[in-house]
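If your schedule permits, I should be very grateful for your opinion on a structural question. I have a record of one protein: its chain in single-letter code and its fold written as discrete structure tokens. Kindly check, if you would, that the fold set down in the tokens agrees with what the sequence suggests. I remain grateful for any guidance, and I place the record below:

***
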Amino acid sequence: MQPPLRGVIFDLDGTLVDSGLDFDAMRREMGIEPGHTILEALAEISEPRLSHCLAIVDRHERAGAQRATLFDGARELLAAIEALGLPWGILTRNSRQVTRLTLSRLDIDSQHVIAREDAAAKPDSAGVWALCAKWRLSPPQVVVIGDYKYDLLAARGAGARGVLFTQGRPLEDFPFADLADFVVHSLAEAQLLIARLVAPVDPSSH
């Protein structure tokens, strides 16, 4: 039986907020092949092209921060987590500055943010470990909620539980769904799941 839930880690874009980032457009502008993940592709690029590409990424991310909106139920979900007394944080592949801009615009106060400057980017589990250490929790006491396979891989690599958020889309859109311990189609469902995991029912008590 898993231990009770004691902390929640969120992906940002595509999970708590929708910033409408067009990754295909970013790749085209940088001359990166379709299907290649951007941060990993940038790691293979040298100067002076790298600076040019980083400027493109920053421009797109800042534009996304300015138009970002909260997913339905996000504010209620965060309020419920705080009411339960659980720490929560954000683990994102976005830059720290753009993440803070997004959160400030949407009036979301997170004291615990791990951006791409702070730890190796997901799917690496470093950010999960860092937040667990900050909260003095073991990974099995934590869930990672995200919309992409890298969120689930980061959770699994650390030993945390992974929650796939589908944004209400059909599960067939997520070929990596088998990596998830739980699947939620709305943030209201995520709120119910968290409440259940905080106080799990012991099967032996029935």
